[in-house]
């Protein structure tokens, strides 16, 4: 099954309270020099092949629902077989 | 004729019954509306209540924004229907792009519940015309994701056009880190207003320290009588 990944991140000018809290917790645990911004990752199983039209449709879905572009930006990419193997 | 004011119940709405009760208490007919309906049932104003529609999944208000009844809300808001979004209702209106900006997690990271002092900045909207500009009112606030954000250009425009309707009073605190202390905004026309505090909880001396919420309902009734 083909898979498309949509990553949604808070825009740089929007403060990210969750990322800030995680950053603080990491520092307290001794992981120094790490600054976190927290986003969301959507893994979408696609029936059939991932064509450019299909990717465009998913970009539209991301723009409509998955991300609020007032405060977030998103990227859409097909997950390759190599990606899937690496994540296993 | 008594004005008919609707309150939309979404799955997870919490304060719909308080809003209905407040409408009745302020002298109008309260009309319960269901999110899955595609009709606003001829109401002359509508309230989107507080709560946790769809469990706040994805983003607060993001899924409720696509409820069947929202198409009619968007169409009639464009034609001047008075619409008030309270807390989660404010989040739904922002997600629906009926209001500018967005609401994210409080800077303090915790759910905040308190009697909050506000300053009425704009007394010309459908929901604030019985207040006076600069008036301090106290309305209960209870939210975890109430931090109002927008880009600097949008904030400048809102301030320039008088679309900042309420601010957290400087004599009190900014409870959630909202940019420029903004507690509520309106659309350009002033018929759509959203705010994080809950005026429907401040209409009865039994349960609230002030009756400042009454002014919201008196305002929309005055607006409807003037039309």
From TrEMBL, chain A:
Instruction: State the signal peptide span.
Output: none
**Alphabetical list of PANTHER family matching this protein:** PHOSPHORIBOSYLFORMYLGLYCINAMIDINE SYNTHASE SUBUNIT PURS
Q: Which family does it belong to?
A: Belongs to the PurS family.
Q: How does it assemble?
A: Part of the FGAM synthase complex composed of 1 PurL, 1 PurQ and 2 PurS subunits.
Please state where this protein is localized.
Cytoplasm
List the catalysed reactions.
N(2)-formyl-N(1)-(5-phospho-beta-D-ribosyl)glycinamide + L-glutamine + ATP + H2O = 2-formamido-N(1)-(5-O-phospho-beta-D-ribosyl)acetamidine + L-glutamate + ADP + phosphate + H(+)
- The protein in question is named Phosphoribosylformylglycinamidine synthase subunit PurS
Q: Name one GO molecular function term.
A: phosphoribosylformylglycinamidine synthase activity
Q: Which GO terms describe its biological process?
A: 'de novo' IMP biosynthetic process
Enzyme Commission number: 6.3.5.3
| Top-level taxon in the UniProt lineage | Bacteria
Q: Which UniProt keywords apply?
A: ATP-binding, Cytoplasm, Ligase, Nucleotide-binding, Purine biosynthesis
Query: Is this entry keyworded Cell inner membrane?
Result: no
What metabolic or biological pathway is this protein involved in? Purine metabolism; IMP biosynthesis via de novo pathway; 5-amino-1-(5-phospho-D-ribosyl)imidazole from N(2)-formyl-N(1)-(5-phospho-D-ribosyl)glycinamide: step 1/2
**Any one Gene Ontology cellular component term annotated for this protein:** cytoplasm
Q: Which Pfam families match?
A: PurS
User: Its function?
Assistant: Part of the phosphoribosylformylglycinamidine synthase complex involved in the purines biosynthetic pathway. Catalyzes the ATP-dependent conversion of formylglycinamide ribonucleotide (FGAR) and glutamine to yield formylglycinamidine ribonucleotide (FGAM) and glutamate. The FGAM synthase complex is composed of three subunits. PurQ produces an ammonia molecule by converting glutamine to glutamate. PurL transfers the ammonia molecule to FGAR to form FGAM in an ATP-dependent manner.
From TrEMBL, chain B:
HAMAP family annotated for this entry? PurQ
Cellular component (GO) terms are:
cytoplasm
Q: What is the lineage of its organism?
A: Bacteria, Bacillati, Actinomycetota, Actinomycetes, Propionibacteriales
What Pfam families does the record tag this protein with?
A: GATase_5 (PF13507)
Note the CDD domains from the entry. GATase1_FGAR_AT
Documented EC number(s): 6.3.5.3, 3.5.1.2
The entry's localization annotation reads: Cytoplasm
Question: Catalysed reaction(s)?
Answer: L-glutamine + H2O = L-glutamate + NH4(+); N(2)-formyl-N(1)-(5-phospho-beta-D-ribosyl)glycinamide + L-glutamine + ATP + H2O = 2-formamido-N(1)-(5-O-phospho-beta-D-ribosyl)acetamidine + L-glutamate + ADP + phosphate + H(+)
Q: In which pathway does it act?
A: Purine metabolism; IMP biosynthesis via de novo pathway; 5-amino-1-(5-phospho-D-ribosyl)imidazole from N(2)-formyl-N(1)-(5-phospho-D-ribosyl)glycinamide: step 1/2
Q: What is this protein called?
A: Phosphoribosylformylglycinamidine synthase subunit PurQ
């Amino acid at each position: 099954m083909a898979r498309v990944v949509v990553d949604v991140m808070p825009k740089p000018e929007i403060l990210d309270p969750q990322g800030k809290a995680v950053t603080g917790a990491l520092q307290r645990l001794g992981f120094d020099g790490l600054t976190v911004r927290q986003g969301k990752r959507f893994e979408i199983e696609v029936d059939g092949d991932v064509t450019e039209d299909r990717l465009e449709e998913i970009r539209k879905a991301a723009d409509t629902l998955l991300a609020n572009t007032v405060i977030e930006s998103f990227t859409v990419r097909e997950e390759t077989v190599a990606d899937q193997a690496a994540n296993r | 004729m008594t004005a008919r004011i609707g309150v939309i119940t979404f799955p997870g709405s919490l304060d719909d019954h308080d809003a209905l009760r407040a409408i009745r208490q302020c002298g109008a007919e309260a009309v319960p509306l269901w999110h899955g309906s595609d009709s606003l049932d001829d109401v002359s104003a509508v309230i989107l209540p507080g709560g946790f529609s769809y469990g706040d999944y994805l983003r607060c208000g993001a899924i409720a924004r696509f409820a069947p009844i929202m198409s009619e809300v968007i169409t009639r808001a464009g034609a001047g229907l008075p619409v008030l979004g309270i807390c989660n209702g404010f989040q739904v209106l922002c997600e629906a792009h009926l209001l500018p900006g967005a609401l994210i997690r409080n800077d303090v990271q915790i759910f905040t519940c308190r009697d909050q002092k506000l300053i009425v900045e704009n007394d010309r909207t459908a929901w604030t015309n019985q207040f006076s500009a600069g008036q301090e009112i106290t309305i209960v606030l209870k939210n975890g994701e109430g931090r109002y954000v927008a880009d600097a250009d949008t904030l400048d425009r809102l301030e320039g056009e008088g679309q900042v309707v309420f601010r957290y009073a400087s004599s009190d605190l900014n409870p959630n880190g909202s940019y420029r202390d903004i507690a509520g905004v309106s659309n350009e026309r002033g018929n759509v207003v959203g705010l994080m505090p809950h005026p429907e909880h401040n209409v009865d001396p039994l349960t609230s320290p002030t009756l400042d919420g009454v002014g919201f309902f008196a305002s929309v009734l005055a607006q409807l009588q003037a039309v």
